């Protein structure tokens, strides 16, 4: 500890503490430094606490699932997820989604393991497809345009 205090005193350029029989006591420069750094550190702590509170609030409201990307095949002209089938995406094993240093690629290649019945439903004109990301810190759903569904259905033939 004394090495850290000595390094701090060297960095500041003045004596911050004096030793006495009971331990150490701050000098007037030490008290001034403490007062100068306490307010910004308290403000930083408040910001970090608020950010953590916001993250917890958001995480409590967005569901978590085994896989974060999915398609939902709903019945014709409905967006009711309860009537649809969820097909969770899995990472494409033939593609590398992470760099050697562990960073995730901005483009993630996913596969969706459709059953034969789900393929038939996907190929049916008018079937509404919801694409979603279900993640603890980001969630989003979008309706796939009919033209995109029709084009992709050719891959399922």
Topology (elements, then pairings):
Elements: H1 2-12, E1 17-20, E2 23-26, H2 28-61, E3 69-74, E4 85-88, E5 90-91, E6 110-111, H3 116-123, E7 128-135, E8 138-143, H4 146-153
Antiparallel strand pairs: 1-2, 3-4, 3-7, 5-6, 7-8
List keywords for this structure.
alpha+beta; Arc Repressor Mutant, subunit A; 2 domains; four-stranded antiparallel beta sheet; rod-shaped
Please report the total strand number as a whole number: 8
Strand order of the largest sheet: 4-3-7-8
End-to-end distance, in Å? 71 Å
Shape: rod-shaped
Strand content: 15-25%
Can you describe this structure?
The chain has 157 residues and is an alpha+beta fold. The chain folds into 2 domains: 2-61, Arc Repressor Mutant, subunit A; 69-156, no CATH class. The chain has helices at 2-12, 28-61, 116-123, 146-153, and strands spanning 17-20, 23-26, 69-74, 85-88, 90-91, 110-111, 128-135, 138-143. The protein has a 4-stranded antiparallel sheet, covered by helices on one side. It has a two-stranded antiparallel ribbon with strand order 1-2. Strands 5-6 form a two-stranded antiparallel sheet. Strand 7 (128-135) and strand 8 (138-143) form a beta hairpin. The longest helix has 34 residues, at 28-61.
Brief summary of the model shown:
By secondary structure, the protein is an alpha+beta fold. The protein folds into 2 domains: 2-61, Arc Repressor Mutant, subunit A (Orthogonal Bundle), CATH 1.10.10; 69-156, no CATH class. The chain has helices spanning 2-12, 28-61, 116-123, 146-153; strands at 17-20, 23-26, 69-74, 85-88, 90-91, 110-111, 128-135, 138-143.
């Amino acid at each position: 500890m004394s090495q850290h205090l000595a390094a701090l005193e060297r960095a500041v350029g003045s004596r911050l503490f004096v030793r006495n029989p009971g331990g150490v006591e701050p000098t007037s420069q030490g008290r001034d430094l403490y007062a100068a750094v306490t307010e910004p550190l308290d403000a930083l702590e408040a910001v970090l606490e608020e950010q953590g509170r916001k993250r917890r609030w958001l995480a409590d409201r967005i569901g978590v699932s085994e896989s974060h990307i999915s398609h939902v095949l709903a019945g014709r002209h409905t967006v009711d997820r309860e009537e649809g089938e969820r097909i969770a995406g899995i990472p494409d094993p033939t593609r590398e989604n992470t760099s050697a240093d562990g960073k995730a690629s901005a483009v993630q290649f996913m596969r969706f393991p459709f059953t034969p019945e789900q393929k038939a439903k996907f190929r049916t004109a008018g079937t509404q497809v919801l694409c979603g990301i279900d993640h603890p810190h980001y969630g989003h759903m979008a309706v796939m345009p009919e033209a995109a569904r029709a084009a992709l259905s050719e891959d399922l033939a």
